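Predict structure. Input: Luciferase-like domain-containing protein, 474 residues.
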Amino acid sequence: MTEHQESATKKKQWVLNGFTMSTPGHLAPGLWRHPRNRTAEYTSLKYWTDMARILEAGKIHSIFIADVLGPYDVYKGPENIDPGLPGVAQLPMADPFLPIAAMAAVTTNLSFGITASTTYENPFLLARRFATLDHLTNGRVAWNAVTSHLESAARNVGLETQIAHDERYRIADEYLNLTYKLWEGSWRDDAVVKDREKGQYAVPGRVRRINHQGEYFRSAGPLTTEPSRQRTPFIFQAGTSTAGKNFATKHAECMFIPGLDTKGIRKSVDEIRSLAAANGRDPNSIKLITGILVIVDETDAKAHEKYEDYLQYVDLEGAATLFGGWTGTDLSQFSDEEDFRFTGPAAIQSLVNSWTETVPGTEGLKWTKKRVLEEITLGGPHGRAIGSPKTVADILEKWVDETGIDGFNLSYAIAPADFEDIVKWLLPELRARGLFWDEYVADTTRENFLNDGLGPRLRDDHPGSKYKWAGDQK
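Output follows.
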């Protein structure tokens, strides 16, 4: 073994997800028009099965499907949905659950991270849906558990306004404990025997009600779906507030950390590791990932040419619509010449300062409304890595080294073409550096993400594990 190969074998291998949404416009409004972009085919099963095959060919961990339950209606508001429609600012949006079984049918190891809301979904019905998909995928589903943040979502499900932020997390905590009881505690490990001679599929006395009566939910149980391979789906979370981080470090097995600069992400990583320990978790058992837009080609010049080509299709009105939904700030209320580096809401100033610190050549620029929108119109409020395989790998490795994260949600401008480019150009370079595996280590989500040899079930330090009903228990 050479010195380089020996060094490479000691490096941490990364988690990589394909980050998408069931919409023609995820984080690149206007790009649905690009001739190589297929996102307008999002209502076709072939679009999803093709994407799944591409990601599995690259041994990507999962396809992570984000979701929202209402339109972004802050920009040029109030409640104005029109500005984002031409460029597709995440409207239209379809149910992320329904393509999963089709994608699972054409793959064997790729996992599926599905976003679902603890505020608006019924816990028993959601538990049954995830258990069914865990069966159909043979243990390859993950739940991105979100509390939802849009006023429009609340109105869509019949509420006059949102439930208060911290209360949504209290609801979520009880919600997850209820689903753990259903998944882990209503069927004993030896309940299903499928004994044809005795005519006994499941054994009486080994299936029980859970009789949950909490502050927010009631459910008698048992879960009507027999135990699946993972039982509890692998848990993703993305809380950023104090309540969100406390919730995530209790329940999450993989946590998404937003951010544009490595210093800010490093601070979040350290805080999350500390909170995880305080919640009785092994800090290293929670995988931490951040989002990044990767545009890669054979050379730096070709990659930047591709980026400039994409910019010809951007829709700034769509970007402003997304920005309003993410921040609650209506940019139409500000003049075109205002410098957001020094004026405007504190959240925007913080965002601009992050860009100024991390994007070379922007120190002296005036951060006008147009400039802010141009910065987020491809890839949203995430970092960017543009260049040859070596250049992009250097950027990503720097992010990991400086932040302590475990990997990335890889976003796109056009799909699935950008994912094809990542598989073709970037992954061989990452493998040569020992940063990404050559092959999946298992065929379930939890085993592939944690890679600790401990099987597909919840780990002992996870709060859901206390609800396990083992075969020798009454």
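DSSP finds 15 helices and 13 strands in the chain.
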